[in-house]
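Aim 2, interim progress: modelling of the fe (ii) ion-bound target.
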Amino acid sequence: MTVNHFGSIKHLIARFVCSFLPSKGNAETNKFLTLLNPGELRLFEAQNKFDKRHSFRNVKKLHALLDNPAPDIIIACGLHDVGKVQSGFGVAGRVFASCVATIVGLHRVDVWTRNNPNSVTHRIATYVQHPEIGASLLSEAQSNLIAVTWARDHHKRLEESALEPSLFVILSKADSA
Ligand SMILES: [Fe+2]
Ligand SMILES: [Fe+2]
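Predicted structure of the complex, ligand included:
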């Protein structure tokens, strides 16, 4: 069984387990934080602790994949999931939201944004739309074009993304960390 848009169930379970693993800062993650403008730093800090760990794991994996990555790419890598926090879901809620989206269909879930903001259905829709929400938050924070594009496209297939294909592949590999 697959979860279109968000990857396979196996991948989701791996994410769920990884979210509880520590990911301490190192020189690479410290450098990542120094690259952020004030608005980007606010978005990073607004994340849950497991999303911050996910950001750090992404940045570390990027450095393992690329020698001396450009600042714009590091920022894109570390901030791609900043839209997740708006749903208010923890890890289990996100797995639930992804499963519901698969069963019901993304197009049907999208219209749930019109529901009561306190309803579970609205929160599921908000979670499903975290790529678009993140892209718009990063755009408001005057983040670079790669960061805005990667936030918007990180659950798309390579051929659907506006990102340069080799960059898409590297950032996808970092996101599987
Ligand atoms: Fe995501
Ligand atoms: Fe991610």
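Residues 2-175 form one domain. The chain has a mean pLDDT of 90.
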